Amino acid sequence: AGDAAGCRRILLEGGGGKRLPRVRPFSRPLLLTLLATATLDCGDREEAHRLVRAAEAEADRLQLPVQEAYVRCARAQLHLTDGEHDAAAKLFELAAEAFRAADMPVQYAWTLATGARSFHEAHGPAAALGHLDAAESVARAYGALLVQERVTDTRAELSGDALGAHPLGLLSEREREIAELAATTLRTREIAARLFLSPRTVETHLSRIYRKLGVSSRLALSDLLRRSG
């Protein structure tokens, strides 16, 4: 739901450390990939790579299609971040097909939506929009609101609707309020007090804001808003 730091903290605390030694072997590849994705969202690319390699080793031992699909998604995310869209698109497609075959429709839709940028770069806009249509159809059928949000954001980005627009136009009303305050010198607790929110809720919104605007810090957010006038 956008709280990468909270996700990472809970996994590390509950799992007993970076390689999640307390987690059952059957579940370890999935949770290692979740930890890797959260770590990547927190900006630690090198550690994310190490975690994906650990997840791949665990999945190789299990030889279970669904666990392998989760690992492929995490590896695809790394390729996407590195701009290696051909490799990312191939892995996203393989993972999506595995989730579909395993009767996991929401995960199938999430994977298609997450991979849309790489599908666009590797195979063109028609392929990307086709995958987004499929993801949206499944998401609506199952009430998967986060998937629908991801589809909407990605469709706008890829179709060029946001081209030339002010970055704040990509955000919800609450996200715009928090972004404008975060771009000043206000700290999380000060923003929370002003908007009558909890500090954790503010941090969750900030994570979503960073993801939508393609920035990774308050300084980068402030620079983006200043350049956009």
**Rg value:** 18 Å
Low-confidence stretches: none
| Total count of strands | 0
Number of helices: 13
**Ends distance:** 29 Å
Helix and strand sequence: HHHHHHHHHHHHH
Average pLDDT over all residues: 89
Alpha-beta classification:
mainly alpha
Helix content: over 70%
Folded structure, characterized:
This protein is mostly helical and 229 residues long. The protein has 13 helices and no strands. The chain has helices at 4-15, 28-41, 45-62, 65-81, 85-101, 105-114, 116-123, 125-142, 145-159, 173-182, 188-195, 199-213, 218-227. Helix 11 crosses helix 12 (199-213). The mean pLDDT is 89.
Element layout with pairings:
Layout: H1 4-15, H2 28-41, H3 45-62, H4 65-81, H5 85-101, H6 105-114, H7 116-123, H8 125-142, H9 145-159, H10 173-182, H11 188-195, H12 199-213, H13 218-227
